[in-house]
Amino acid sequence: MKYQDTAGMLENVRSICLAMPEAVEHIDGFGHNTFKINGKSFVISGENEKGFGLSFKSDRETQELLLQNERFFKTPYIGHHGWVSIQNPAGEDWDELTDLIQEAYLRAAPKRLVKQWLEVNKK
Fold first, then answer.
1. What percent of the chain has pLDDT over 90?
2. Using CA atoms, how far apart are residues 20 and 15, in angstroms rounded to an integer?
3. Prediction pTM value
């Protein structure tokens, strides 16, 4: 998949996030598309002066590993909580990003939904 425009990248993020049980999309006060489960954010995306930005919830260990790759950076303001961002992801990034978005969901979701998702997806 190759996504060159912001609308296409947002649609890809939306399709990944909303495929997760009970995930919802909310437009926050800054105009960012925020994806939540049970009131907890797990992905934030939006357009800025540099193009399309995508941030996702992570743990500190995964964050450290991702930050070794120059494509990823610590999310401003919430990076100290483990959040990681990528700017204008290329087509080849989306398989990895799908896994990272699913992991972000599992970090934020209640145990019953984690169990349900793991049973269905056998991870």
1. 69
2. 9
3. 0.90
- Write the class of the CATH domain 6-118: alpha beta
Domains of the chain, by residue range, sit at 6-118
Q: How many residues does the chain have?
A: 123
Number of neighbours of residue 38 by Cβ within 10 angstroms: 13
Spatial strand order of the sheet with 84-87 comes to 24-27, 33-37, 40-48, 51-56, 84-87, 72-74
Q: Please state which of the ranges 41-45, 96-100, 102-106, 115-119 shows the lowest mean pLDDT.
A: 115-119
Chain segment 30-79, per-residue pLDDT in tens: 889 999 999 999 999 988 888 889 999 999 999 999 999 999 999 999 99
Cα(88)–Cα(5) distance, integer angstroms:
9
Which residues have C-beta within 8 Å of that of residue 64, sequence separation ≥ 6?
none
